[in-house]
Amino acid sequence: MKKRVALLLALAMCLAALSACGSDGEAADPGFDAVAEAVKAAAGTEGMAEQSADYIANMFKLDSGSYADALVMIANMGTSIDEYGIFHGSDAAQAEALHTAVQDYLQLRLDAWMPEYMPEEFPKLQNAKVWAEGNYVFYAILGEDAKTAAGDAFTGCFAA
User: Fold this and answer.
1) For 58-94, how does the pLDDT look when each residue is reduced to its tens digit (9 = 90+)?
2) Using CA atoms, how far apart are residues 104 and 90, in angstroms rounded to an integer?
3) 139 SS3 class
4) For residues 94 and 136, what is the distance between their CA atoms, to the nearest angstrom?
5) DSSP 138
6) Pairing verdict, β 136-141 and 129-133
7) What share of the chain is helix, strand, coil (3-state, %, to 5)?
8) Helices (H), 44-143
9) Alpha helices in 61-143 (DSSP H)
10) Rounded to the nearest 5°, which phi and psi values hold at 150?
11) Which long-range contacts does 33-37 make (Cβ < 8 Å, 24+ apart)?
């Protein structure tokens, strides 16, 4: 029963997240705040902490001039590797560079993984996914259900 209620709640959050972006003729760029709020609603932020521009510079090799907006959320408890991030480029060239930086970051994480460290969490990293819409790049290192919900929320922001 609790699982059914949790699933219904998650579905309701996904629907709310999808409607948060809306489609009022601005499908090409719904705005970073709308995208971030939709993804947060779908993926959640409980037990997660927003990372600083310094973290982004160190881990993604991106200074603050490399993107228009960014949000990286990481689990702040050592029992989970849950993480997601949204980057907004100021133009298509910057968005392409952001996509490459995110791919490189995910590869770095895979290369640095120690097999004996939380083996039950490794599939999240192995199955991490990257989405790109317009000048936005979104990645998710999450469980399958959360990753699907967050990805749907992200892409829903750009639906016509």
Assistant:
1) 999 999 999 999 999 999 987 899 999 999 999 999 9
2) 20
3) strand
4) 10
5) E
6) antiparallel
7) 50, 15, 30
8) 53-60, 92-112, 122-126
9) 92-112, 122-126
10) -65, -40
11) 34/157, 35/86, 35/88, 35/136, 35/138, 35/154, 35/157, 36/69, 36/71, 36/86
